[in-house]
Amino acid sequence: MPKILIIDDEKPIRSTLREILEYEKFQIDEAADGAAGLEMAKNGKYDVVLCDIKMPKMDGMEVLENIMKLTDEPAVIMISGHGTIDVAVDTLKKGAFDYIAKPLDLNRLLITIRNALDRTELVKETKALKKKLSISKSSEIIGASDAIKKIMEMIAKVAPTDARVLVTGGNGSGKELIARQIHQQSKRAAAALIEVNCAAIPSELIESELFGHEKGAFTSAIKQRIGKFEQAIGGTLFLDEIGDMSLSAQAKVLRALQENKITRVGGEKEISVDVRIIAATNKDLRKEIEVGNFREDLYHRLSVILIQNPSLNERKEDIPLLAEHFIQAICEEYGNGKKTIAKEAVKELQKINWTGNIREFRNVMERLIILSGNNISVEDVISFAQPLSK
To answer: Which of 308, 327, 358 marks a domain boundary?
Structure first.
């Protein structure tokens, strides 16, 4: 449900807007002055902010300027009963999505809010695409251990086919890197690799995320949405943490795999989808099947090829290569000169029990780069590799 923040010092206006917008199925918060509104905007993850210009403590123009500095800035619609054309132009120059004069034309306001929501969604999708482009530069699997060599050999054999692959392994072990390598070495490499974290999406939204929905399919479906299956047509769909998917969604995924067709939520038309599926899980799906949490028929559909990704503890001989890799990558990310690491420090890293796998290891390397000198010593590892509260 889209979230809207109303910042206005006039309570009757806030109450009227809340009543209208809640009737339109928006989630509404209010602030009675600019300072309180800015604080809420910083912490509330709003899609749209409606902001008055003349307010106590902090005027709307200052609020607008500060909201535009936020990393995930919402679309801001300025409203005022004292504005001029110059004021309206100034708000747009400062980054406002639109300016509406009081008394408010409610039809125009609703249209503007919906357009702002479309813009917010487009910005999110653009950021996601940029993230995917940056990720593609860092998808190399680092290691020379026997375990990693076997995985690379398996990828080389499997990638040119369209066989479905199930990757298993602990959290943070790099299952997504295997999926990316399979995609990049496949005949589908020129098309998209679409990733879905099944554990991060609420069960009531997973079907809409995967299959899309038609406008009006449910309360907040204000426009048609294309799901991940359609986005991945011609390419690869990576279903991460599929063991956390609800049984109802599993049934629909099974049907999609059997028939290569989907139906959007609220729709009737069947859509053909030419998609390669790679799934991953940190769970023992055999045990999940036994207790009724996972469909056995879906398991067999997904596990044409099984790849078990080893934990970092099972391939500690790769730690020297991983340390060098992350030192270079993190120093470049921070814009620092490259640091070095002593051989004794690497040996100390190899003694640690890496329960969080590669993800934990990268975090530790980042901590060492921040807190150590130009050469990471064994004393640095002893001091900083464990949580600092210990």
So the answer is: 308
> Are 151 and 225 found together in one domain?
yes
Q: Rounded to an integer, what distance in angstroms lies between the CA atom of residue 367 and that of residue 355? A: 17
What integer pLDDT is reported at residue 152 of this predicted model?
95
Burial class (CB in 10 A: 0-12, 13-18, 19+), 51: buried
Same domain, 11 and 85: yes
- End position of a domain, from candidates 100, 124, 148: 124
Kindly indicate the confidence band of residue 85, based on its pLDDT and cuts at 50, 70 and 90: confident
Q: Are the C-beta atoms of residues 174 and 357 closer than 8 Å to each other? A: yes
Question: What are the φ/ψ torsions at residue 312 (nearest 5 degrees)?
Answer: -65, -35
Residues 234 and 186 in one domain: yes
pLDDT in tens, 281-336: 999 999 999 999 999 999 999 999 999 999 999 999 999 999 999 999 999 888 88
350, pLDDT greater than 90 = yes
Q: If DSSP codes are grouped into helix, strand and coil, which group holds residue 277?
A: strand
DSSP class of residue 225 equals B
The single residue listed with the structure tokens 């590799």 is: 385
- For 217, phi and psi rounded to 5 degrees? -65, -30
152 token code pair: 């690379």
Residues 297 and 360 in one domain: no
In this structure, the answer to whether residues 149 and 210 fall within a common structural domain is yes
In this predicted structure, the answer to whether residue 127 has a pLDDT above a threshold of 90 is: no
Which residues constitute the domain of residue 219?
Answer: 138-308
pTM of the model: 0.65
For residue 56, pLDDT over 50 is answered with yes
Spatial contact of 355 and 322, defined as CB atoms under 8 Å apart: no
